[in-house]
Amino acid sequence: MSGADPGLKPSQNYYTYCPLCNGIFHEESTQGLLRRKSPAHFAHRDGCEAAILPTEELLSICSWPDRVRDAIRQRRTEQQHFTQNNTDGVDATLFVQLAGYVGQISSTLGMPEPERAELERVAQDLHDEATSENPEPGRLRQFTTQLKDKLGEAGTTMAATMGVQMAEQALGALGQ
User: Fold this and answer.
1) What is the Cα–Cα distance from 79 to 65, expressed in whole angstroms?
2) How confident is the model over 57-62, as a mean pLDDT?
3) Are 96 and 157 within one domain?
4) Rounded mean pLDDT of 12-22?
């Protein structure tokens, strides 16, 4: 783990690691014969709880393991809170999980920056709606369908396929 200022972007002079699993941070790069762009990401080890956090958030707090654990607890509590308090028959759990998952994988899909930013915006809209006082089924369906379509356009990676399946499961819970 680096001791650098969290506001600084990692450089080639030192390495940055996930404080929980010691997975190394990889900066955005262009690789391979096709010059495919590889987005910035942490190479988390299987089961690392920090994988629930978006790369940018984890990068900003990775020098402080206690902050990382607090951020993980906050995200999980937020998901549980809104699931338990939902009384309108809409189980927001699947939608919150989908939004979080898309936030985690968006940088690994190899999408051009404008499309990735739009994917993340829709995921945030879904998260906001799913965690609102009274999530509207129509808005949940709209945002989930948009995510499903955008993930389908991202290609046939395992991560995108899993996201599409999660979206279909969430839509099924609405009684589509």
Assistant:
1) 21
2) 82
3) yes
4) 75
* Residues 17 and 94 both lie in one domain: no
Q: What is the pTM of this model?
A: 0.54
By the 8 A CB rule, do 133 and 157 touch? no
Tens-digit pLDDT profile for residues 86-143:
445 677 889 999 999 998 898 889 899 899 899 999 999 999 998 888 888 999 999 9
Q: Which two tokens stand for residue 86?
A: 């939902």
Q: Is residue 94 part of a domain?
A: yes
Q: Which domain holds residue 51?
A: 1-64
Q: Is residue 71 part of a domain?
A: no
| Distance of alpha carbon 6 from alpha carbon 87, whole angstroms | 40
Closest residue by Cα to residue 137 from 100, 99, 85, 172? 172
Query: Is 52 among the domain residues?
Result: yes
Contact 163, 151 (CB under 8 A): yes
The tally of domains found in the chain comes to: 2
As a whole number of angstroms, the distance between CA 98 and CA 65 comes to: 26
